[in-house]
Amino acid sequence: MRQTGDKEQQFLGILDRYKDVVSKVCWLYAGQGATFDDLYQETCINIWQGMESFRGEARMSTWIYRTAINTCISWHRRNRRYSDTSSIDSLEFEPVSEDKAPAMTEEHRELHRLISMLGPVDKALITLWLDEKSYEEIALIVGMSQANVAVKLHRIKERLSKLADSGR
User: Fold this and answer.
1) How far is residue 133 from each of residues 20, 21, 125, measured CA to CA in Å?
2) Which of 37, 88, 115, 159 is most deeply buried (CB count within 10 A of its CB)?
3) Strands (E), the chain
């Protein structure tokens, strides 16, 4: 990070500004084998450790999303051998406590349930799209081309639609 000033104050400012982004990503990946608190804490540690390497070539929000998503995916990959599931794709969205759940309508809860059935990259893509990120910014965050983002999002939307229809 090329800004001057106290690293701790910068860190606290970043967390204050982007806590909703970090919470959203950690909440999405919390579930079997990972608590929200574990993922949030590890993401914060990675933000702290990576602050000085942030070059400002992308927006801070892009870097925060990328750090949070990569942290959560890496956590699951590292820890899946200790859980009773053989694949991260089988993780179910099961919040640890209701008091941490964002206020959601029943439709939002169903959408989160359906998204939890997706693989880790697909979760990231659809979450970023739902956050109204451009294809260009999504491509920067997840490290793929804009064309690939467009194709994958189209397929994810089709899959979510089929999952929703099969649940009715």
Assistant:
1) 15, 12, 10
2) 88
3) none
